Amino acid sequence: MWSPDPARTPRRMPTFAAALAMVAALGLTGCIAGYRPLYGEAAVGYATQDALARIDIAPVGERVGQQVRNELIRAFYPAGQPIDPIYKMTMQISISGRDLFLRKTSEVTRETVELQVSYRIEDPATKQPVTDGVAFAETSYDRYSSEFANIRAQRDAENRAAAEVAEQIKSQVAAALASGRV
Q1: What average pLDDT does the segment 95-119 reach?
Q2: Domain count, the chain
Q3: CA 94, CA 91: separation in Å to the nearest integer?
Q4: Which domain holds residue 123?
Q5: Predicted confidence (pLDDT) at residue 104 exceeds the cutoff of 70
Q6: How far apart are CA 53 and CA 69, in angstroms?
Q7: What's 181's DSSP letter?
Q8: By the 8 A CB rule, do 133 and 119 touch?
Q9: What is the pLDDT of residue 176?
Q10: Integer angstrom CA distances of residue 29 from 36, 39, 41, 71, 98
């Protein structure tokens, strides 16, 4: 069996690794100095999640809009209810679909669902907008010969789009809250 002679083995590797670790630590310190987490303490002294919980989300009439609202309620209110809401969010839902793939027989084999949600957060006392935005999602699903399977696949695609749009809205509103625009 071969073993190196400890007296002849160079000792530069541990020194190099230590120097590399030190440079990496200093580099990360420089990056972290201006970093503020989105869901941590905000500049105004309260957590972004607490601020999200103070936004009342107005009911929406259609099923997909209600799915978006339910996803936002889960994201905004971990405790289940808004905490003394000071803002009100309203949403406008636009949903459409289109055919993606056609066979030679003009049979559609895949469709897409496009969901666009425009939201507005306002102060209920003054009716002045605090922030607004738009979120968009596009999901697709396969078409089958069974009508029930098509309805279920379309509903599943709508639910996926609603979850994606709700996540976008949560991120946009949290960023507005963290930046002090709200």
Answers
A1: 79
A2: 1
A3: 10
A4: 48-179
A5: no
A6: 14
A7: -
A8: yes
A9: 87
A10: 13, 20, 19, 37, 50
